Amino acid sequence: MDLEGKTVLITGASSGIGAACARAFAAAGARLILAARRGRRLEELANELGAAFGTDVLTSVLDVRERVTVGRWMRELPGAWQAISILVNNAGLARGVAPIHEGVIEDWDEMIDTNLKGLLYVTRAVLPGMVARGEGHIINIGSIAGREVYPGGNVYCATKHAVDGLSRAMGIDLLGTGVRVSSVDPGMVETEFSIVRYDGDEERAARVYAGFEPLHPGDVADAVLFCATRPPHANVREMVLMPSAQASAVHVARDTV
Ligand code: NDP
Ligand code: 8X3
């Protein structure tokens, strides 16, 4: 599908996979709504994309956990930005790796509220317009953590399993509406993800990706763009994308020297 002039909403566009998706869609000629909490990052990215591709960008400081705000934000989008063709549900995070009996309940709430409820709030706000127009595409960023579990992954994995279930359920509910649903499920990608998970401990975060080449955010953006550019009769329902050095959530071939 030709993306020239299509409006794409990317949540969590201030960093990592979301920012890489913004660059990929901009290069493909789309106009972008970039949402996240860190507005300054979004402005910098919008300036970069404007200079590189002449991209028309609307930046929105938005916390996907705020249900009422998300609904109002959608209703108050300028008319020219209301017809969103593609929604990339990317905003998400992990907090900690505590075993379940030592879990920090605030961390659980934050992961559930962002990865699951936030995705639902944004989707619920955007979908009626897509269904009314008879065209649209929801691309959910899941994870290998939505297909497997690993020690300390407990609630993060549960949220991504829920995203997997929702992607499949949305596909059924939207059958015949002209709205497609895809799930892109990466293994380890070097972004700010582990810095956030380890509460700003950059050395610990770097160790997650030591001794092998993880995915780069652009690799995931390539996969998302591939989903978004299939012709209307074809849909990538799900895609699992791993570093070549990773075979499962816990099997990673690291250099030992
Ligand atoms: P980053 O930490 O680099 O990016 C996360 C993005 O989510 C940021 O832009 C952040 O923006 C945004 N975000 C977090 N909370 C909120 C919120 N409440 N409201 C709006 N935006 C929010 O990590 P990644 O790029 O790696 O993560 C993107 C997605 O990819 C997540 O869903 C993650 O679970 C998933 N994923 C990551 C993998 C990895 O190994 N890195 C592997 C598989 C999946 P801000 O803080 O400005 O709000
Ligand atoms: C992020 C990848 O391996 O930390 O979803 O679960 S992992």
Low-confidence region ranges: none
- According to DSSP, the number of beta strands is 7
- Amino-to-carboxy terminus distance: 46 Å
Query: Which small-molecule species are bound to the chains here?
Result: NADPH dihydro-nicotinamide-adenine-dinucleotide phosphate, 2-hydroxyethylsulfonic acid
CATH level-4 homologous superfamily: NAD(P)-binding Rossmann-like Domain
Per the principal axes of the C-alpha atoms, what is the gross shape? Answer: globular
Helix-residue proportion: 40-55%
Helix count? 8
Largest sheet: 7 strands, parallel
Description:
With 257 residues, the chain is of the alpha/beta class. It is 42% helix and 15% strand. The chain has helices spanning 16-27, 39-53, 67-75, 105-133, 154-173, 193-197, 202-208, 217-228, and strands at 7-11, 31-36, 57-61, 86-89, 136-141, 179-186, 238-241. Helix 1 (16-27) links the parallel strand 1 (7-11) and strand 2 (31-36). The termini are far apart. The model has no long low-confidence stretch (mean pLDDT 98). It binds NADPH dihydro-nicotinamide-adenine-dinucleotide phosphate (NDP) and 2-hydroxyethylsulfonic acid. NADPH dihydro-nicotinamide-adenine-dinucleotide phosphate binds next to helix 1, helix 4 and helix 6. The site of 2-hydroxyethylsulfonic acid has 6 residues, from loops.
